Amino acid sequence: MTAGGPLPPGFDEAGVQVAARAILRKRAGEVARAWPALAASYGRDWPETFARWAAERPTNGSIRDAWDFARAHKESLDRNAALELALTETRFHYDGESPPRPRRMAVRRVPGGVAFQLNGRARVIGRR
Asked: Which segments constitute the SCO6045-like C-terminal domain (predicted)?
């Protein structure tokens, strides 16, 4: 319903659109719980912004939806959302298709510093 596929014969188009919007709002809420800084960076616009992006994409779960959204908007993320993305990417490897896997060691740039992860512990150096 939310991935933009054709409507099966006999379905009420208006009813399906209402249900699809409700599902997209629910997905936005789940993503906001998984990645709070990402959602907070959009303020009141978060549900609609996420819904526009997600409307043509089937869900892969809230964590992967958040990760995909953050990567797609990487250049416009605020400082806290960029940090949330960088810390997640130091802890896990995610190719955009298969489930995320823990990393052994990783380093990512964040606004004002560097985030790194070693043996499951993530840290940030130089952020003010």
From this structure: 1-74
Where are the domains positioned within the chain?
A: 13-125
Query: ∠92-99-125 over CA atoms, to 5°?
Result: 15
**Is the CB of residue 87 less than 8 Å from the CB of residue 36?**
no
Main-chain dihedrals φ then ψ at residue 95, nearest 5 degrees? -90, 5
Q: pLDDT value at position 4?
A: 61
Total Cβ atoms within 10 A of residue 4: 10
> With a cut of 70, which residues of the chain have pLDDT below it?
1-4, 127-128
Q: Which amino acid type is present at position 4? A: G
DSSP 44: G
Q: What is the DSSP string of 59-123?
A: ---HHHHHHHHHHHTGGG--HHHHHHHHHHHHHEE--SSSPPEE-SEEEEEETTEEEEEETTEEE
Separation CA 106–CA 104 (nearest Å): 7
Neighbour tally for 24: CB within 10 Å: 21
